[in-house]
Amino acid sequence: MEENIGRSRLGKASNAHSSARRDLTANAPRPPPSKRGRRKQGPPQGQGPYDHEAGGSRSRARSRFGQPSVAHDDFDADEFLNEHAEYEEHEQQEEPPHYQPQYPPQYPPQQQQQQQQPQEKPQEQPQRRRRSRPQARPPPVDGEVYGGGPSDLSLLSEYHNHRAILIWEAASDDKEILERNLRCIASGKKVIDIKKPPRNERWFWGPVEATGLEPLVRTNFSVLDYGLIWAFVERWHSETATFHLPIGELGITLDDVQCLLHLPIEGKFLNHSRMTRDEGADMVNAFLGVSKKCAMDSFADLNGLYLKHTVLEAIYSDNRKNADRAVAENKPMHEIRLYRERCIRAFLLYLVSSTLFSNKSNYYVDVIYLQYFQNLTTVHEWNWGAAALVHLQHYLDDGCLARVNQMAGYM
């Protein structure tokens, strides 16, 4: 019997014969050492010492990379026969099937680490707490109206900030709202108390009357009805610039200003811009005779281009005394005229700052208005009535808000 009987089947090598298995086991190459991340390779099938006799496809065994395999005598047959049980890759665990990296390796490691971490729900940014102050409720939604108030809010868009809402919605025992008073700051009494020259001194009253501002000396009150003023402020609406009364809307017109205050309502509008402290000090020095150093000290003390009422009153009184002394000493006329013009400018600035342009401070005047008294013969050309109305409406717009407790302007 030939030795190759039973060693081939259909022209291919057969491993069914026991001797063939022994030869295959003895001559099979030892598998290369396992490497991390690479599947271990077993011996190529169908390659034994009788492949050339059995018509095998290869005359010699080759490894995975096409290099000749080297036979190892210490190869363990049990390890080869149980390759499916012993050669599983336990060194590297496979990733869960649901995990897929979202960034390729070329991205920065920080971004990869951020993507590997489970995504958390973004935290909401904490809202800044506002100061507690009396505020009206937010604007109503479409279809909602204020009880007892306007039903059409297309025009009164700022009604939710109005002080009338707090009063309307307050309880009968809410003293914090119902007993709150609006502080009205009026400086008209200072014009009454200031010492003025006699009416027969025409050098003073002649230029003052020519400016058109002389009626402000006679249109002031020593005592004001603050309750009445507050009632009107509560009914003012900045959107319409009118008072909303039970009888209808009532506004202040330029004709009212002319009839009540007798001020000019025609002419050039007051037009001024910001001024530096150096410019303000130069203007005070040229028009009022105050040294530049004293003016700068006053600006630094009040943190702006302001002069105190007491300082301006002292400038007015000193220049008046200097003018009378110059007349008594028979000084040159240009020197007398200089003192008189300074006296008139100081008085006019004091007059308009205590009436038309009064502010909430009640103790200082704004130097910016001094430039309109540079030439006393052209003061009447300015529209003082319109300026007074705009200034008053500005404070009415501010006073009708729920958060405001003070009211200023000419009252």
From TrEMBL:
**What are the boundaries of the region Disordered?**
1-149
Pfam assignment, any one: PMD
User: Where is the Aminotransferase-like plant mobile domain positioned along the sequence?
Assistant: 224-397
Q: Where is the composition biased (Pro residues)?
A: 98-108
Q: Where is the signal peptide?
A: none
Start-end of Low complexity biased regions? 109-120
What GO biological process terms are annotated to this protein in UniProt? meristem maintenance
- What's the protein name? Serine/threonine-protein phosphatase 7 long form-like protein
Organism of this sequence: Trifolium medium
